[in-house]
Design brief:
α1 packs across α3. The protein has one domain. The protein is globular and about 55 Å long. The strands form three sheets. A seven-stranded mixed beta sheet has the order 1-4-5-6-7-8-9. The protein has a two-stranded antiparallel sheet with strand order 2-3. A two-stranded antiparallel sheet has the order 10-11. About 25% of the residues are buried. By secondary structure, it is of the alpha/beta class. The chain is built from nine helices and eleven strands. Helix content is about 30%, strand content about 15%.
């Protein structure tokens, strides 16, 4: 890409919206042959054959609930949210190169706004060891050499963080992660449906991790959104939000929307 690291699952990439990227021709050639890609998808030892859903039965909609979802999902107003053909784009070529679909094999991205330097951090399922790897001297030098900022600078300027690994204890680093996040404008989104956490993961009691949750509430000053509940209503989070400046409250309220099947936040660069 224009500035920052390349698409290495073990490193953090940075995209500067003001610069244009050049695609690897090999990706385009692979896209042309995607229709012949018929090997079963394997993730964590589960083979997904044709017609088999990768999701548990509790996530499969039926009857009127399914009809209501389809009506909203297929509406003209929400058509832009669909990802039906996104697998045909170049992102699929990158994903297919990750042959072992396991946790901690993630494309982590720090997207920087060119004018303001504000950063959107999307770490995927990267876990603590991966976060530590972003601080390696070779990675830091590579980022700076390509005209970007190093890992510490990107973290310091982060104003939007999509929490990794559903808020697990190992999905967000402290010393090599949150300790570097210092921006007062930080907003946090956590992809979590707490009552659906599998018992094999420790159940809802383990998600989100309590220590991590406390730090995220403090760092974001209460501006923490979860996919299951929307803006969290914990007493401590509400107290932090009450102490925000009027302009900060307005920006957060105006930027956040929650629909029946989606959550949206407008990030201003």
């Amino acid at each position: 890409m224009g500035s920052g690291a390349g698409f290495n699952p073990g490193s953090m990439g940075m995209i500067n919206p003001a610069s244009a990227g050049v695609l690897n021709p090999a990706f385009a050639r692979e896209d042309e042959n995607l229709s012949s890609f018929n090997e079963p998808i394997v993730e964590s030892g589960i083979s997904l054959e044709e017609g088999q859903s990768p999701f548990g039965e509790q996530y499969i909609l039926q009857g009127k609930e399914k009809e209501a979802f389809q009506k909203d999902y297929n509406s003209i107003a929400n058509r832009w949210r669909q990802i039906e053909t996104d697998w045909l784009e170049n992102a699929a070529s990158i994903a297919m190169r990750v042959t072992a679909l396991t946790n901690n094999t993630s494309l982590a991205m720090a997207i920087e706004f060119g004018d303001s330097g504000r950063v959107v951090l999307l770490p995927g399922d990267a876990q603590s060891g991966n976060w530590m790897g972003w601080h390696k001297p070779t990675v830091m030098r590579s980022l700076k050499k390509k005209g970007g900022k190093d890992t510490a600078e990107l973290l310091a300027n982060t104003i939007f963080y999509k929490v990794g690994h559903h808020g697990s204890h190992n999905g967000t680093a402290s010393v090599s992660g949150l300790n570097h996040v210092q921006n007062d404008d930080l907003v946090v989104f956590m992809p979590l449906v707490q009552d659906k956490v599998p018992s094999a993961w420790g159940g809802s009691e383990n998600f989100p991790d309590k220590s991590l949750y406390r730090v995220l509430i403090e760092k974001s000053r209460g501006r923490l959104v979860r996919t299951d509940v929307g803006v969290i209503q914990d007493a401590r989070a509400k107290k932090f939000r009450a102490e925000l400046k009027a302009s900060e409250k307005k920006e957060f309220t105006d930027s956040f929307k929650k629909g029946p099947n989606w959550v949206e936040y407008v990030i201003k660069g």
